[in-house]
Amino acid sequence: MILSFNAKITDTAIFSRYSSTKKIINKNELFTCKKANFQNIDDLLVNIQKDTELMEKTLKFYGFFDAKVSHAIVNNKFKYVVKFFINEGQRYKISAISCNLDSKFILENNVNYQKYIGKNFNILYISQMEQKVINLLDDNGFPNAKISKIDIVNNPLKKNVSIKLICDRGEKQLFGETEITGLQNTNPQLIEKFITWKPGDTFSKKQIEFFKNKIAELGLFSDVSISEVKKNSKININIVLTEDKKYALEFGLKFTTSNNINYKNAGIKKLKGIITHVSWINSNLGKQMDRLILSAEGMPFYEKHKIINAITRNISPDYKFKVELLKNEFLMERYRCNYYAEQSQKWFNKYIKRGFVIGASLLQQQREKFNISYKLFIENYKLKTFSENTNDSNMFRFTNFEYTLDIDMRDNFIDPVKGMRSVFSITPEICLNKSSNILMIDITHAFYIPLFREFNIFVPWCRFKSILSKSSSLLPDDKMLYSGGPKSIRGYYIDFAGKVENDIPTGGKSVLELGIELRKKFNDTWGGCLFVEGARVCDNVVPTNGKFYNAYGFGIRYYSELGPIRVDIGFPFHKRRSIDSFAQISISLGHRF
Question: pLDDT digits over 5-46, tens only?
């Protein structure tokens, strides 16, 4: 057959028995698509042969080792259409996986790559197995280990594949000497207590990462740099710390609706505006204290606001003044201590809270998997509650003791990929001037499950909060539990994922929140997420009945050095007329959980 090309444009079509094949084959990567104009038949046939080999190779990556690709060329007067016909054949399964490492060594370190046996072959599984073995060796003194060869043997009779990883461990490395530089005002013993290795121990990058995270948590250094210097079979560790300036003045502006909402004119209306923040820091005070922080922030506005229907109140803006003293070593150098005092005014949906708090907190140090913290504080405040007919004002004095157990099994506390985290908090609160004693319980749990690759993370989470008290009528409004907002159920105004009366959320004595989130990293800088979540606010101690308020949405992530900056857009499943908006947008730093 003789074809007259005359620089005509070709088109490409792919035919297969399975719709999933079209997802495997990227049509835009085919040569007959990228090069649209062909001058002669030989030029076209050469590119068709390239595409045939490319598709057969790609199908083998997904277990179709018997796949065959044929083609046909059709002239439809205006252009030539190249049709590819794919016969995938039967997909091979993984029958065996082995490695030249000692099997006992593999089992003792919980490298369970046998879980892939019986699954359909996928080239991505090879990458995951490689990474598991490399990470294992890296944590056991072989930082230069590499996979030198991968043998993939397919059995056409049994339609299965056996995989063997050939690993080159390299020379085993040990920790050498550790040198710390850059300290001028900080006690070196404070840093040395977080060094979990000594000369001669098996080298492990995981220990170095743990050390770096702990030093960052101290908040005393603007930069922590760790370099590794190989000397024979040992690796010396050089730690360079850059201390914060002894005196520092910080200030900034931020646009916010964080604790308040921009609601409809017919109901609650709160100014959204600019918060001004100023802080003065004195680091390294001496042996008694490590840091003094004086800070102030507030909205520089004063405005009349509609509260209920046509009732108008004069409400001064939010403000906060705070003094903090930080001590990193306390009580036999086992705890980090923080003393603080705060004078503030905040306007919420239902009330204005004005008063002061003084307290102290202890965080137990040197815990790799969990932290324990204790907090003792005294509150003295005036609570002005808005209702349709009244404008009540009451004074409250509380003495609170908070105990928190934080079990953190995540691989990274800033941007986790796998693991889990559970936070349990219990707080007895004794009211000194009224019969409003309560016991607050707060439990949060989240799993981090990598899917296919570590760029895809599935995160199911839940939170349970409850108040034990004699009567709901004795509870101050600021102690009631609410749900909704950027730190809770996205898609609802703050506190509005529950019952609302006269445009004001009623709250309850218990809250159950559930959600799932699928996170995906497009690259090292950008990512996104999809989420579905819901909450139930109940008047009982246990939220066993009541309506669930559900929301769904998506978000965008920018991964900065400080952590992910997230923009989330949430939508309520069932929008309540004159109460809920079509969507809620929130911007914040760091993952919610």
Answer: 444 556 777 878 777 777 788 777 788 877 667 767 777 888
pLDDT of residue 72: 86
Find the radius of gyration of the CA atoms of the chain.
31
- Rounded to an integer, what distance in angstroms lies between the CA atom of residue 536 and that of residue 533? 11
pLDDT at 300: 59
Q: How confident is residue 254, by pLDDT bands cut at 50, 70 and 90?
A: low
- Quick one: 32 exposed, middle or buried, by C-beta within 10 A (0-12, 13-18, 19+)? buried
- Cβ pair 265, 306 in contact under 8 A: yes
pTM of the predicted model as reported, rounded to 2 decimal places: 0.66
Nearest Cα to Cα of residue 362 among 372, 353, 370:
372
Q: What is the DSSP string of 221-234?
A: EEEEEEEEEEETTE
User: In the chain, what is the greatest distance between 2 CA atoms, to the nearest angstrom?
Assistant: 101
Distance CA 579, CA 490 (A): 15
| Beta strand 351-364 pairing with 584-589 | unpaired
Measured CA to CA, the distance from residue 60 to residue 88 in angstroms comes to 9
- Six token digits for residue 311: 């009732």
Give 436-500 as a DSSP string: --EEEEEEEEEEEEEESEEEEEEEEEEEEEEEEES-GGGS-GGGSB---STTS-TTS-TT-SS-E
Backbone angles phi, psi at 462, to 5 degrees: -150, 155
When pLDDT is averaged across residues 450-466 and rounded to a whole number, the result is 85
Distance, CA of 563 to CA of 567 (rounded, Å): 13
159's torsion region: left (phi>0), alpha (psi -120 to 50) or beta? left
d(CA 423, CA 408): 8
